[in-house]
UniProtKB/TrEMBL annotation:
InterPro entries: Metallo-depent_PP-like, PhoD-like_MPP, PhoD-like_sf. It comes from Pontibacter saemangeumensis. PANTHER family: CALCINEURIN-LIKE METALLO-PHOSPHOESTERASE SUPERFAMILY PROTEIN (PTHR33987:SF1). This is PhoD-like phosphatase metallophosphatase domain-containing protein. The keyword Ribonucleoprotein does not apply. Residues 1-25 form the signal peptide. Pfam families: PhoD. Keywords: Signal. Residues 52-282 form the PhoD-like phosphatase metallophosphatase domain.
Length: 341
């Protein structure tokens, strides 16, 4: 209840903060020592124009987070996978970002293997090494010895610490349940695998971070389109919710991609005293038309345009303000939500 009381106490401050946040968040302004800016995106084809990098660089993020489908390799051949990564690394806009911005992230099916691939992919160990090479992960990093790319990344320290939990939703994911060509929920199937579940519980339970970003290549909250999100595996989705309730980690926010549209969603869990938000940013090089339905947890409307995400954290002495944004070309704000914690 303490977390809820804090939210209520600072509700009156929200209007004043909302007035000043957009100006402070404008691209091209001087870095703010009281602000941490994390940018993120997904669904980026190395074969198509990539017009968003100029805007992303102009936003001056402290970190860029890939949310999956970072390239479209769609292959079982690792030589072709390596060529696709190399092509993306040569892109001038992405090279400019890499000059001044740290990069981390996770993968999804198109940069893991091929459309819909899961644990059955026979070359997943080799694919893991190519992905980690693309991310610039050191050769001696422990993640190179485990099965799957899941790992954590920390930004800041003390009372300004942000922990980023990069989930692997492909390496251990069970098969989708297809009946006569139609996808149905796999009631007993898993997404993460037992070792990753144990790792995630420890990372959440033992954490002193102020904010926890849970990065999933596929959406978590929506229950529609069950063949493309966690709803395809109801038992695993419910296990994730129960883990969030058990661990009580401070301010979990889910970042996801995959859907070729952007949207914001939130859910109220019985065992957690604040809404759990999910922001989906997709795609960077191609998109589809927005839809009105399909996500009962949606806040606002879907965004059907090329987009990337911005998460601004404004650190104050007695509260923290969080600005969630979806932006398009020229840093146009397409979707926005403000939180106080």
């Amino acid at each position: 209840m303490l977390h809820k009381r804090i939210l209520l106490q600072h509700t009156l401050l929200l209007c004043l903060i909302c007035l000043c946040l957009p100006a402070a968040a404008l691209p091209g302004t001087a870095p703010d020592s009281s602000r941490t800016r994390i940018a993120f995106g997904s669904c980026n084809s190395q074969l198509e124009p990539q017009p968003l990098w100029q805007s992303i660089v102009a936003a001056k993020p402290d970190l860029w987070v890939w949310l999956g489908d970072n390239i479209y390799a769609d292959t079982r051949e690792m030589a072709e996978m390596a060529k696709s990564y190399a092509q993306q690394l040569r892109h001038p806009g992405y090279r400019q970002l890499l000059q001044n911005t740290p990069v981390t992230g996770t993968w999804d099916d198109h940069d893991y293997a091929y459309d819909g691939a899961g644990k059955e992919f026979e070359k997943k160990a080799q694919s893991q090494q190519l992905f980690l090479n693309f991310m610039g992960v050191p050769k001696n990093a422990p993640v190179r010895e485990q099965e799957g790319i899941y790992r954590s990344y920390t930004v800041g320290e003390g009372d300004r610490k942000i922990k980023i939990l990069l989930l692997d939703v492909r390496y251990h994911r069970d098969r989708l349940n297809s009946v006569f060509g139609l996808y149905m929920p796999n009631e007993t199937g898993d997404v993460l695998g037992e070792e990753q579940w144990q790792w995630l519980e420890q990372e959440l339970t033992d954490s002193d971070a102020k904010l926890h970003l849970i990065v999933s290549g596929i959406q978590v909250l929506p229950t529609g389109q069950s063949y493309t999100n966690w709803a395809a595996f109801p038992q695993a989705r419910e296990r994730l919710f129960r883990l969030l309730e058990k661990a009580q980690a401070a301010t979990p926010i889910i970042l996801s991609g995959d859907r070729h549209v952007a949207e914001l969603a939130k859910i109220d869990l019985k065992g957690y005293n604040a809404p759990i938000y999910e922001i989906t940013s997709s795609g960077m090089t191609h998109h589809r038309e927005p839809r009105a339905g399909g996500n009962i947890y949606r806040v606002g409307e879907q965004v059907g345009a090329l987009n990337f995400g911005i998460l601004d954290i404004y650190w104050q002495s007695d509260y923290t303000a969080i600005l969630l944004q979806i932006r398009g070309e020229e840093n146009q704000v397409l979707l926005e939500e403000k939180l106080i914690i």
